[in-house]
């Protein structure tokens, strides 16, 4: 692959960002929603949408008391299913940029304005909040050692398969330009945690540009996390996604994951 000339970067126009929507896929986040909301600088987001996946606590009531738009699921649809509702709602609300943050206060929302500014330049289309700036910071922040090791191994493998160089491909803080969500057929994705890996593979397949920024993270009892068994399942499913991507890239697969979205441009689909 050849070098990209500087003038080619300069030719990319800035995005006209009129509306930023922050979506929060929630499950039992009653104790952390307000802290997450307050961590996002005032004025950097125009609308907050929380999708509740049948929480067993007061997540819905607390979110509504904070003035957040709430969409409650009638049945538990899983982490991926929750994000599908989030993105449908954000597109329907007219978002030019969609920021996704877990409402468990694990991720520092203060980086939101910087992320929106980067997307505005037009030099990137997808931004990931990287928890892995250094090994010491990550482990001192509370990430379990087995999660750190598995994250590093899986991220290195994915970067090789996708031709990327991102620091953390398994983060719960992500931001997308509208055209990414309008193009990717995310409704074909899993309703489970592997949704995120599928979405990144789809982003690369459609030639969207991925960038990342360091984000401080916190690990504590109320922060969401999956156990070792589910982490192992997620890792194995992610590996499968990478091979599906390569087959699609080589023209040897007709997987629905890598087809264009059936949603017409400008529609939200909800």
How would you explain this protein's 3D organization?
With 270 residues, the chain is an alpha/beta fold. It has one domain: Spore Coat Polysaccharide Biosynthesis Protein SpsA, Chain A. Helices cover 40% and strands 14% of the residues. Strands 3-2-1-4-6-5-7 form a seven-stranded mixed beta sheet, with helices on both faces. Helix 2 links the parallel strand 1 and strand 2. Helix 7 runs parallel beside helix 10. The chain is globular. The termini are far apart. The mean pLDDT is 90.
In short:
Helix content is 40%, strand content 14%. It is of the alpha/beta class and 270 residues long.
Strand content: 5-15%
Q: What is the helix tally?
A: 10
How much helix, percentage-wise, in residues?
Answer: 25-40%
Structural class: alpha/beta
pLDDT averaged over residues: 90
Q: What is the CATH superfamily? A: Spore Coat Polysaccharide Biosynthesis Protein SpsA, Chain A
Give start-end ranges of low-pLDDT stretches.
Answer: none
Topology readout:
Layout: H1 6-10, E1 20-26, H2 33-39, E2 47-52, H3 59-65, E3 69-72, H4 78-92, E4 97-101, H5 112-121, E5 126-130, H6 135-140, H7 145-162, E6 173-177, H8 178-183, H9 195-205, E7 210-214, H10 228-249
Parallel strand pairs: 1-2, 1-4, 2-3, 5-7
Antiparallel strand pairs: 4-6, 5-6
């Amino acid at each position: 692959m050849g070098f990209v000339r500087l003038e080619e970067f300069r030719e990319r126009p800035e995005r006209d960002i009129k509306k930023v929507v922050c979506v929060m896929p929630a499950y039992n986040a009653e104790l952390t929603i307000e802290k997450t909301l307050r961590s996002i600088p005032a004025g950097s987001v125009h609308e907050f949408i929380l999708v509740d996946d049948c929480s067993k606590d007061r997540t819905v009531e607390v979110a509504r008391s904070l003035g957040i738009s709430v969409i409650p699921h009638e049945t538990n649809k899983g982490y991926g299913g929750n994000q599908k509702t989030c993105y449908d709602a954000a597109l329907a609300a007219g978002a030019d940029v969609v920021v996704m943050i877990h409402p468990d206060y694990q991720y520092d929302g203060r980086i939101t304005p910087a992320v929106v500014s980067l997307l505005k330049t037009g030099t990137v289309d997808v931004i990931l909040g990287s928890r892995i700036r250094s090994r010491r910071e990550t482990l001192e922040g509370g990430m379990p050692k087995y999660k750190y090791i598995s994250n590093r191994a899986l991220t290195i493998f994915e970067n090789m398969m996708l031709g990327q160089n991102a620091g953390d491909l398994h983060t719960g803080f992500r931001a997308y330009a509208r055209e990414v969500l309008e193009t990717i057929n995310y409704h074909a994705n899993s309703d489970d945690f592997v949704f995120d890996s599928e979405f990144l593979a789809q982003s690369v397949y459609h030639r969207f540009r991925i960038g990342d920024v360091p984000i401080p993270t916190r690990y504590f009892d109320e922060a969401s996390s999956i156990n070792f068994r589910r982490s192992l399942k997620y890792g194995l499913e992610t590996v499968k996604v990478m091979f599906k991507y390569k087959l699609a890239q080589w023209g040897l697969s007709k997987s629905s994951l890598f087809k264009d979205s059936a949603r017409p441009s400008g529609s939200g689909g909800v």
